[in-house]
Amino acid sequence: MGDKRRWFALAIVMTAAFMDLVDVTIVNIAIPSIQQNAGATESQIQWITAGYALAFAAGLITGGRLGDIHGRKKLFLIGIGGFTIASALCGFAANPEMLVASRILQGGMAALMVPQVLSIVHATFPAHERGKVFGLFGAVVGLGAVSGPLLGALLTEWNLFGLEWRPIFLINLPVGIAGLILGSRFITESKAARAPKLDLVGVALVTLGLLMLLYPLTRGRELDWPVWGYVSMAGSLVVLAVLVAYERRKSARDGSPLVELSLFKVKSFAAGIAVQTVFGVALGIFFLVWTLYMQMGLGWSPLKAGLTGVPFSIAVSTAAGLSVQKLVPRFGRGVLQAGALVLGLGVLLYMWESERYGLGIEPWQMAFPLVVMGAGMGLIVAPLTDAILSEVPREHAGSASGLINTVQQMGNALGLGLVSVVFFGVLDDKLGGLGSGESEGAASAAAQTVVGSAFADAFQNALGWVAVVMGAIFLLMFALPRRTAQHVEGAADEAESAEAVGEARETVAVA
To answer: GO CC terms on record (predicted)?
Structure first.
């Protein structure tokens, strides 16, 4: 490929990665508007975000393998085309059920599109240029972190053409169409010399197991926790046990399982996967309840809520760069553990300020705990992938990287499901007596205060659980290696790739 053509191709795949990043960040800020204007229930707003994460997680490894087998360009174009169509279906959804289904489709299409981005980079650019390319991806991630919530806030608040929240999805249409046209012209096709076989049974078992766990979690509270919900959640463990047995057989039969179980014999990898999963749970809980607290509890506009998150995003980006360049080479694992403690401290500070200032809290009062939280998160997200991969054999680096990103998405989906327990459950208890008889005006004013206080209490309860999770992460990190040494080029590239577009995709970009 000529020099100019490959840089055009890079711009196209980076734009697609940016579109995916922004789509994840842009939705959270519009969730209260979707609930109010589309009449979505609490479980439906959980599934608007969790459905995307679950579909993305379930299809991520398979999407990468399909590209290796059938061509990365082909799968990238299918993915970006499908993502664009799904965005249109989201934007024109006639009811919440259609929106949830379209979001699940959108996540599935992202699972086809996103893995091809880095594969195309690897096939297009020589090794000595990839550092520069991944640096550009880091900039794209940072830009998506800041611009997504702000863009979502502006589009929601402007209410363009009376479409309310719908432009947050419709904005993908011109970008996706342009990417489809230009990608077909400038991206060169590539395939893997020896691609692993597909494991569709593994994908089906993972998806079934997670659905059996997540569906009762999100619907159980609304349905007064029926017996079938507990049976389903217990059954999910059986399905996951069947998955392990099947993966062992498939690995022995053809060497291409969905999950390379031998990786879990590596202590640092097993511990790192646990850290990544639990971290995803914490993020899934925090970012949804944070949005609901600011807009529905405090009554802030989407723009005010979006601007409040800017110090957090800046702190994450700054601390992430500092941790990789200066701190980790000197202090090793201690930097990640310090990050867990700092993030937990920021959460506790946020809880204290929320209780102290009550419904009169202002964005500037939130800035300090958010900066502390962002600094803690930045110390974790950038070096974590390298720590997890540091003792993984070179031949399994690709599988390990795919699994890291997959479990984070699964953790995120699980966290979103747990919101019904740690947030909405408290909200129900606090609002149980709302509406007992005063005059209409007094009752209305009293009701607003009660609702706001209930949201604040539920938010503080959710933060308490996030703080506990960060303590657990701190302890799990003792199983990570004290120092991480870069692998040979292949593994190092995989680690840097996962870090640039996979892990940072949901963490830095306000999952």
So the answer is: plasma membrane
